[in-house]
Amino acid sequence: MTMTSRSGTVLTTLDHQIPPFIPQGAEMMTAKVELPPGEPMLTLVDEGELAARARWAGVTPARR
């Protein structure tokens, strides 16, 4: 791992690290969506929220 400082920020570069190595202080969010075969196309409902058209037809998402 290589760490370089640029004007007060730290840039971390992973060279030959074996996953699941995560640098200290790293922030990330992952999501895995599994759909059965034949599932209709997904539609973006609200910021970061997904809903299948067939399941949520006519439903208005709650606003934050």
Secondary-structure map:
Elements: E1 2-6, E2 9-13, E3 42-46, E4 49-52, H1 53-56
Antiparallel strand pairs: 1-2, 3-4
Separation of termini? 40 Å
SSE pattern, N- to C-terminal: EEEEH
Q: What number of structural domains do the residues give?
A: 1
Proportion of beta-strand residues: 25-35%
Based on DSSP secondary structure assignment, what is the total number of beta strands? Answer: 4
Radius of gyration, rounded? 19 Å
Spatial strand arrangement across the major sheet: 1-2
Proportion of residues in helical segments: under 10%
The biggest beta sheet reads: 2 strands, antiparallel
Mean pLDDT over the residues: 59
Low-confidence stretches: none
> What is the count of helical runs?
1
The helix/strand class is: mainly beta
Report the principal-axis shape. Answer: elongated
Q: What is the oligomeric state here? A: single chain
In short:
The chain has 64 residues and is mostly beta strands. The chain has one helix at residues 53-56; strands spanning 2-6, 9-13, 42-46, 49-52. It contains one helix and four strands, in the order ββββα.
